[in-house]
Amino acid sequence: MKKITLIAVFLLSAITYAQIVPPTFSWSNKSDYLIDGEYVFKPGDVINYTIDYTLGSTDGVADTKWFALFSFQSKAYDAAADAATGNDWVTVDGAGPSYADPSGSITIPALQDLSSAETKSYRILVYLAYYKGGDTSMQVFGGAGASDNQLISIKSQAEVDLLSIEDFENSPSIGAYPNPTNGVVNFGQESEVYAVFDVTGRLVSSQKGGKSIDLTTLQSGIYSVKTDFGIIQVIKN
To answer: Which of 67, 80, 81, 91 would you label with 161, given CA atoms 20 to 30 Å apart?
Structure first.
């Protein structure tokens, strides 16, 4: 009986020693840049980002943060290169990487090759680098639960404007009241995210959830509000 008890204690100790609690990590305001189901940017756009994270532990010892990275990257559509290297993403000159925590900004460079007309794909690479169990010799760069590799689109201002017009023309007729408004606008349906664009197609506000949004802080003018159920034009007094 004593022998069995000792074996059980040993196994329990081994399980406890091997326990790893993974970190959590996210680019938390990513939805601010969502247009028509895509994360869209234009050359020259400034991305103001916020990063949320929690650190885990290794073998019962708390992990410690090293740094958080935010980087704009590109790669050509080249299957042969992908097969040869396994990863041909390249950080674009002038756009990072930025090492900031918990928030910062990065500018999409106004380079000629940053266009939807080019045969390239783009992504925002965000990750948390940390030390396992606080041991500086055990560095971890992202990984499951600690990385956010978001594919994005690069479009010109004209493309964004056209997208907004087409969406508005094809959107269903949905009530928004009062319209014109001095601030709060109510809708007949609930949307998870409301994205508000000015007449130039620039995102000026993003709000989450419910059946209403508050435009009090915006200047007087005409705005297009993108919802889960279509785009609605709203006049702010």
So the answer is: 91
